[in-house]
Amino acid sequence: MSGVKWSVIGQVLGDRYEIQERIGSGGMSVVYRAHCSYLHRDVAIKVLRNQYADDEEFLRHFSREARAAARLSHPNIVNIYDVGQDEDLDISYIIMELVSGRSLKNILAERGSLDPLEALDITDQILGALECAHHNGVIHRDIKPDNVMIDESGRIKVADFGIARAQGTGTFVPGDKIVGSVRYMSPEQARGRHTDSRSDLYSVGIVLYEMLTGTVPFDGDSTIGVALRQMNDEPEPIDQVRPDVPRPLADAIMSSLAKDPGERYASAEQMRAALDDARQGRAPTRRRRTHRDDDDTRVVSRSDGSIGAGESSMVRRPRDRGAQRYRDERDSREELEPPRRRWGWTAFIWILLLLAASAVVGYSAYWVWDWFAVPVVEVPDVQGERVPTAEAVLEEHGLTAEIVASTHDEDVPANHVLSQKPDTGSEVRRGHTVELTVSEGPQWVDGGVPDVIGESKLSAQVTLENEGLSVDFSDEYHDEVPSGHVIDQIPEPASRVQRGSEIILEISKGPEPRPFDLPGYIGEAEDPTREALDDKGLRVRVVRETADMPEGRIIDQDPAPGTEVAAGDTVTLTVSEGPDRDLNEDTITISVPDEPAEQMIRVELIDAESTRVLFHDRVEGGSEMELSVYWSGEAARVFVYSDDSPIESITFRED
Hints:
Trypsin Inhibitor V, Chain A, 27% helix
């Protein structure tokens, strides 16, 4: 079975999910129908393919992101019930809601395009799902018709949030592939740059464009070609492709397809409002912005203790015990009266001792009281938070933050917390200092992506890997670039990328093979024939059998001589193992007619045992050819044909 190490049909995952049948597959996984024995319901199980199931680093990110997506609860999102690994079967999987219905891709393949109102209704539900996801810090990164399901009641269900990335963790992880179908991918995603919720809105715009026109704005024969168009070309205005699309709707769609994320809708809510305006015939209104306002400090107290946008519940209670103690001591001194008479030295010493003892006892009592009076608090989890947010969270818990170190990290963006000390959940006294290690973000490649176009495959790979980049390849025929050399690369040369990012190289396979007529090899020796076929780029398959020909001679070939073939095709040669009887041998000379200039000559032999072909190939007109003839019995006859017309016959008899 493709994608897993053996068949999992009939296996039971997690002691409860019995796998029943395969129902689909994708680039990363195979999907099965299964039955849950605990809840007595059918579910869908997505099993990772081998190349991902064996990658420990990928599995760590996959598990974290799938669990983040499992927290999403929305009627337009395919629910994720569970995520786990089965060590016995050596597979990783996601348990999901089983949706009975069809994908939007299948519907578009059947109908071509949709009515504008129907397309808007589907888009509104997709945006509703994304609105929920984005509010929970999850971006999808692979919105396309394949991942939009329509159940039997007509409700939209967006699938594959299990491979989405939790927002704020960056665009790529080490070894990560470019996620998402390139025809629906945002320009920034194609360039390998940071993606956010606006990248999802770009993909929604392309899906809506396709629902209305029956085609995507950018298409092509190669992945790199489509990606380059996504980055550089402007889409053809939708009302030119489909003139009956109202202008307000056309404007709303084209706004979502802006190359600059800052020129798109700022949120799924804003895009829904614009499309609703268009549905009502109003010009879509929206707030444009040039960047996300990610650097604002936003604080709110939630039930789970997390920090988000909203009203702060933090109350600062400064405590200056030193000042208060000074005031207390000052008041005490004001109440003391000066001595009215001299004391003796003994009394004076006793007074000093009593005062000293009182001070020690009072000071100790003060700190004991202070220790027991200060409450114990639990250290909150601020790992992964922006530094201002982490400081606000700690201050809300009565703690202070101190940045003690910073370092580069490919997973955690700059100015976000990498680690903390004490750890999450530790109990400390209010006022304790929590030490933070902060990310400086990923390391960027100096000077951008090296230009390796035109270099050999190996040289380009070494150059890129020396810069800390990973490399993947795609092969294309090219008439000008030599085989094994780089035709193109993505991201393009000098693009700003982080170390660990993937560069796709398009490698030339040389000129595309052109068809030619297969020569005839009947009667020829095996070894020279193999070499001739190999030189033409053809594969050779050999079958051996007893025949009235010397051992090692070709007695038949498939395809037949004159058949059109191309490099890479297979030719089957039937080779003689030698005769099982005594043979007579004669030599004949054949005079080929002058016309036409090139003729297909076929020589057939009939003897006491069989009828067989001795020669079959194109020959120049007016030439002569000698041919050895092996026959058995008392007599034999040879017939010579030119372009299927008989030109000569020769009879042999035993002496």
